[in-house]
Design the sequence.
């Protein structure tokens, strides 16, 4: 069996202009919502990555015809979903399983939603609870996948999210499409709003008032043409790499700059980062723009409160940035990181420690004093795309060479990650070894 790894040599500045692949959150939603729409939805610049391909495969298993015109262009023939012939496999996709659960509880047939061993470890009580309150018949094994769903009559509820989670908000709103009466979701913080933007654009009667979202069921979803913007969460690795590597100056085009996603930009600017953003238009409801990043000396910062949910996927790469900053950086209110693809607080602390970092892991965050010098070493991606990609950036800033094992998982969200970095001038390559 061949095993892929990233081979990294530091020392090269990053220069030039690039795009990044389509936004993962929007790509998942575009195929699912397109499947529910009455008619034909065209999607351009869709993300052809591990997680989104899993969502696409389940949509096809639900009897929806999806034409593929190359890796990033799809035509979805929406309409009624059909009973699948077996369990639906969402592989590693947390967004895929939680959003799809919201849809499946409203269907007139049973289904089973499952995934990889990694996905089976992730908490599902957070969706089982509100969906059950809506009348859904959904059960997990110890509140985890596989999820078994029977058809049931749903009614709208008012639900105050106990955790700031866009996946939970979306699952409840999607079930609300099939419920009798109004569904109201109240968020504790400004979680990503792609579901609201997209459903509204498709003609759903949905009102947003501060942190309260109200959905009235009844109207069919209008099919749409989507062009998916570049994923800010993918851009984040390139942004931090350019900030940390002396002499770098890069420009990223066509990136979603939806403010519910760009908390990292606010924090990096507070740290003294030289980042210029120019808004260039709107795509799939999201503002998009060009981001120019130049190498900068960073100062430490305290992160907590409302910004945490707006940068929730960026903490692994933020930890790398914090190691380069002058002074004591603290992160709190980020306990959600423990239930992502991996326990990202524990795993990042352990892997960066192998590169010589000193980080104090805390229950809902971490503390570290910088700047720290990293030393190249073999580290592990733990089948978690954002861990693997963050460690590549750490390797680019270290003394000596680094190997990040488990390169394959990067393509769960960022196919072509090493190639994109290499195009900007970094010495990064994906290699394979035969094992076993
Ligand atoms: C996502 C929501 C977030 C995020 C995930 C994508 C989404 O998860 O971490 O990568 O597309 O709705 P939570 O809802 O668990 O915070």
Sequence:
């Amino acid at each position: 069996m061949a095993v892929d790894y990233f081979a990294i040599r530091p020392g090269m500045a990053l220069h030039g202009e690039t795009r990044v692949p389509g936004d993962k959150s929007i790509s998942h939603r575009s195929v699912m919502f397109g499947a529910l729409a009455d008619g034909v939805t065209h999607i351009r610049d869709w993300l052809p990555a591990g997680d989104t391909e899993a969502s696409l495969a389940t949509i096809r298993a639900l009897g929806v015809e999806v034409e593929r015109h190359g890796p990033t262009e799809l035509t979805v023939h929406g309409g009624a979903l059909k009973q699948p012939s077996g369990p639906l496999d969402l592989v590693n996709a947390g967004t895929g399983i939680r959003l799809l659960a919201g849809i499946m509880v409203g269907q007139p047939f049973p289904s089973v939603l499952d995934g990889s061993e990694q996905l089976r470890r992730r908490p599902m009580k957070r969706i089982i609870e509100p969906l059950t309150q809506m009348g859904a018949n959904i059960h997990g094994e110890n509140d985890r996948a596989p999820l078994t769903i029977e058809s049931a009559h749903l009614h709208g509820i008012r639900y105050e999210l106990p955790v700031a989670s866009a996946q939970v908000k979306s699952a409840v709103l999607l079930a609300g499409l099939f419920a009798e009466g109004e569904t109201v979701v109240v968020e504790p913080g400004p979680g990503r709003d792609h579901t609201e933007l997209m459903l509204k654009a498709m003609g759903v009667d949905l009102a947003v008032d501060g942190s309260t979202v109200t959905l009235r069921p009844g109207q069919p979803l209008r099919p749409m043409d989507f062009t998916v913007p570049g994923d800010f969460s993918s851009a984040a690795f390139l942004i931090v790499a350019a900030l940390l590597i002396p002499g770098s100056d890069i420009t990223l085009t066509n990136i979603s700059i939806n403010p519910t996603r760009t908390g990292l930009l606010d924090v990096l600017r507070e740290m003294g980062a030289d980042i210029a953003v120019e808004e260039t238009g709107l795509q799939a409801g999201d503002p998009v723009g060009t981001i120019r990043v130049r190498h900068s000396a960073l100062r430490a910062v305290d992160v907590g409160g409302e910004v945490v949910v707006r940068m929730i996927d960026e903490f692994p790469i933020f930890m790398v940035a914090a190691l380069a900053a002058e002074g004591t950086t603290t992160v709190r209110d980020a306990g959600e990181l423990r239930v992502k693809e991996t326990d990202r607080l524990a795993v990042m602390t352990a892997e960066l420690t192998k590169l010589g970092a000193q980080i104090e892991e805390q229950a809902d965050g971490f503390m570290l004093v910088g700047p720290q010098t990293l030393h190249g070493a073999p580290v592990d991606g733990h089948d978690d795309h954002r861990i693997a990609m963050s460690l590549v950036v750490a390797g680019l800033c270290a003394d000596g060479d680094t190997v990040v094992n488990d390169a394959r998982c990067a393509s769960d969200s960022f196919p072509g990650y090493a190639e994109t970095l290499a195009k900007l001038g970094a010495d990064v390559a994906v290699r394979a070894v035969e094992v076993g």
In short: The chain has 14 helices and 24 strands. The first strand starts at residue 2 and ends at 9. The mean pLDDT is 97. Residues 2-22+229-434 form a domain with the UDP-n-acetylglucosamine1-carboxyvinyl-transferase; Chain fold (CATH 3.65.10.10).
